[in-house]
Amino acid sequence: MQATASSAPCPEVQRLLASANRLETSCGDGHMVWHRWSPAMARKHPPVVLLHGGSGSWTHWLLNIDSLLRSGREVLAADLPGFGDSALPPQGRDADALPEPVEAGLRVLLGEGACDMVAFSFGGMVAGLLAAQFPARAARLVLVASPGLGIASRNTITLTAWRHLSDPAEREAVHRSNLAALMLHRPEAITALALRLHTDNTLLDRMKGRRLAYTDILARALASVSCPVHAIYGREDALYRQRLEALAPALQAAPDFRGMHWVEGAGHWVQFEQAEAFDALLLALLDEPPRL
Fold it and tell me: What domain of life (predicted)?
């Protein structure tokens, strides 16, 4: 049975949900859930598809959707299979199980049209695998803090278990500690909103035992990705501490790699911690010519 968040969405989430169309596509024994926003002033851009990170949902992009809409772009934000409100994938419990159900959903929602794929962390592995397997789908790929490059180490970060705790205050303390260890660099970035989003998302994570983030699966997939590939990483990302210089060479496996871009003062959840700087950079990359 699917877990549920403990209470109604917070006001920031409710505001965006009120302006979105909630869509469902087939996934395993249930549905994959998408949220679609159309801009007030549409311009001629490919739709932007947002894929979230592990133990996340579409709300990993909560602070970034308005900026994309103001630029005239249609936005589709997924709850990836096994996360948020989406059903488990038909088989498998890691990134390699998701490209086919995600592509099947995009085929229903976008037909054969290409989109700009912007993908965070675990979602970056999914997007890279999808772009390699279904090359016509991606007009461009923007990888945000994505692992699967043969760089991240299991020994870099220690997270604390929390599901056995019944005391809400103890659970909150653990979530705050885990956010500091992995997701956010600056203590002041661990706001009530960050804590609420993280807590709600982890409750809905049913994709246990994921291991591909510590392999080079994304780097190998990028060798077959024909569209332009951009990368945005936080300068203080805990996953790559003392390994930052290895990121760009690994990403250069993509034939049309357009460059490595850093956001200062940001950890792993870069688009949340430094949303304004991230949004400006992302829009500049999306405005570049999409193909060679």
Answer: Bacteria
Q: CB pairs under 8 A, 24+ apart, for 244-250?
A: 246/149, 246/151, 247/149, 247/151, 250/149, 250/150, 250/151, 250/216, 250/219
3-class SS string, 109-129 = HHCCCCEEEEEECHHHHHHHH
Q: Decide: residue 133, CB within 10 A, 0-12 exposed, 13-18 middle, 19+ buried.
A: middle
pLDDT digits over 174-207, tens only? 999 999 999 999 999 999 999 999 999 999 999 9
Residue 132 falls inside a structural domain: yes
| Domain around 146 | 11-286
pLDDT on residue 29: 95
Q: How far apart are CA 180 and CA 186, in angstroms?
A: 8
Residue 292 covered by a domain: no
Q: Which CATH number belongs to the domain containing residue 98 in this structure?
A: 3.40.50.1820
Is residue 45 in a domain? yes
Q: How many domains does the chain have?
A: 1
231-259 per-residue burial string, b: 16 or more CB within 10 A, e: under 16: bbbbebbbbbeeebeebeebbbbbebbbe
**Domain membership flag for residue 144:** yes
For residues 262-275, give the mean pLDDT.
Answer: 98
